[in-house]
Amino acid sequence: MADRPTTPAELPDNDAQWRTAGDRIQTLLDSCATGGAVAYERAQQLVREVVGLYGAGLERIMLIAGDPGLTERLATDDLVASLLLVHGLHPHDVRRRVSDALDRVRPYLGSHGGDVDLLEVTDDTVRLAFTGSCKSCPSSAVTLELAVEDAVRAAAPEISAIEVVAAQPAAPSGLIPAESLLARMHPPGSAWHPVPELTQLEPGEVAGFVVSDTTLLVCRVGDQTLAYRDHCPVCDDSLAGAQLHETLLDCPRCGTRFDVVRAGAGPDGAHLEPLPMLPRDGVPSVALREPLGAST
């Protein structure tokens, strides 16, 4: 958000390291299981004691802080906010946290010609409406939904259902549970993969990356970095060697032009397959799924 007082320059250099501490702790706990049930239980108890200790400390900090400005800084720092959520200490209600999360992903949605409106937050359900020029592009629609779902669940883990107002007027019920929609259009097992090398791209540059056996084509347009699967839908070939002309990417084999800032739109309804890309834990990350049509 534009009014957030904390800037990346103020964060410690090892900020991303601590955000992945949960995974490392779980790995260590799992390794303790090899020492037997007693050792594993003692390791779990140790973690519970440590978590309880820093939870009590966080609660004390929030009480002592008092100053609304300082409280806001703590609540809008991603790392601190995640800890506050774990202990039920976050000062913002669910609607505020969801709204802020949507604001953070709106620039990404806009780069794909889309937007999202927060319609309602009731109990443990969030209702959203997607808008924009991408609603007729199935792969782009899934891209936007996956990015929004990830942001909402990170900001409000207590949310158990995300309902999306169907962009297509022919949808029978008007409301589609995000989980069932995403399950149909991309197989289970989708995951975010960090690609720190993306920060090295210069404006106007196009580069290929292999991530989890998937070849990506990544373009840098101004301050936007956009990722697509390396496949031309017109000639059914690789885009390796493609050149970027402002926002248009030329296929080096068939010459077809695709608008990379408009979800890869090409002529006659053809389009590249965009991939969700967001900064996660301070590192550019791409969400990958199986190719369309793959068996689940």
UniProtKB/TrEMBL annotation:
<keyword id="KW-0001">2Fe-2S</keyword>
<keyword id="KW-0408">Iron</keyword>
<feature type="domain" description="Rieske">
    <location>
        <begin position="192"/>
        <end position="286"/>
    </location>
</feature>
<keyword id="KW-0411">Iron-sulfur</keyword>
<protein>
    <recommendedName>
        <fullName>Rieske domain-containing protein</fullName>
    </recommendedName>
</protein>
<dbReference type="InterPro" id="IPR034904">
    <property type="entry name" value="FSCA_dom_sf"/>
</dbReference>
<dbReference type="Pfam" id="PF00355">
    <property type="entry name" value="Rieske"/>
</dbReference>
<dbReference type="GO" id="GO:0005506">
    <property type="term" value="F:iron ion binding"/>
</dbReference>
<keyword id="KW-0479">Metal-binding</keyword>
<dbReference type="InterPro" id="IPR036922">
    <property type="entry name" value="Rieske_2Fe-2S_sf"/>
</dbReference>
<dbReference type="GO" id="GO:0016705">
    <property type="term" value="F:oxidoreductase activity, acting on paired donors, with incorporation or reduction of molecular oxygen"/>
</dbReference>
<dbReference type="GO" id="GO:0016226">
    <property type="term" value="P:iron-sulfur cluster assembly"/>
</dbReference>
<comment type="function">
    <text>May be involved in the formation or repair of [Fe-S] clusters present in iron-sulfur proteins.</text>
</comment>
<dbReference type="InterPro" id="IPR017941">
    <property type="entry name" value="Rieske_2Fe-2S"/>
</dbReference>
<dbReference type="InterPro" id="IPR001075">
    <property type="entry name" value="NIF_FeS_clus_asmbl_NifU_C"/>
</dbReference>
<dbReference type="GO" id="GO:0051537">
    <property type="term" value="F:2 iron, 2 sulfur cluster binding"/>
</dbReference>
<dbReference type="Pfam" id="PF01106">
    <property type="entry name" value="NifU"/>
</dbReference>
<dbReference type="GO" id="GO:0004497">
    <property type="term" value="F:monooxygenase activity"/>
</dbReference>
